[in-house]
Amino acid sequence: MSESSNALLRAACFVMIGLAPFAAEGAELFKWVDEKGRTHYGESIPDQYRKKATKIERTISDPTDAQRRDAVERSAKEKLRATEAPGAAPDTPPSNTTPQPTVSNTNVRGDSCEEQKQRYLESDLCFAPFRNANGTIKAEAFRHCVEVKEPRC
Questions:
Q1: In sequence order, what are the beta bridge partners of 112?
Q2: Model confidence at 86: pLDDT above 60
Q3: Which residues contact 147 (CB under 8 A, 6 or more apart)?
């Protein structure tokens, strides 16, 4: 084989490897339930389930502003629930008594632990729309939000 045909073969291989993810994206996906009631997903359907199978439409779209707000609110509620005292009922309303700041739950500014947590949650909510899929934060966020470290109280 000559060098030019060898180089052409190598180039063709690279193109095929590069296009492989796009071929997988275009594959049809089906859903079916077997006789034991288990749900299956796949690109090929066993013959006995062809009549019961349904095609799954794959759509990838950006979330709407309302969906983003809902996600941010859910995240904040989950974080607040996680910081509650262990053993407390998850959906119990907060008591009307406000804890008085003590030496053990105040920081240098004199904020109570609850105030520190509140400032942290507000900061986290501000940064939420600027988070990348891998958890990093876009630089633009620091023009809009003030970073507050999670309190250790």
A1: 106
A2: no
A3: 123, 127
Which amino acid is present at 145? C
Residue 1 burial (C-beta neighbours within 10 Å; 0-12, 13-18, 19+): exposed
Confidence of residue 48 (pLDDT cuts 50, 70, 90): very high
Average pLDDT of the chain, as a whole number: 74
Distance (Å, rounded) from C-alpha 68 to C-alpha 114? 26
Show the 3-state SS of the chain. CCHHHHHHHHHHHHHHHHHHHHHHHHCCEEEEECCCCCEEEECCCCHHHCCCCEEECCCCCCCCHHHHHHHHHHHHHHHHHHHCCCCCCCCCCCCCCCCCCCHHHECCCCCEHHHHHHHHHHHHHHHHHHECCCCCECHHHHHCCCCCCCCCC
User: Which tokens belong to 48?
Assistant: 């006995």
pTM value is: 0.30
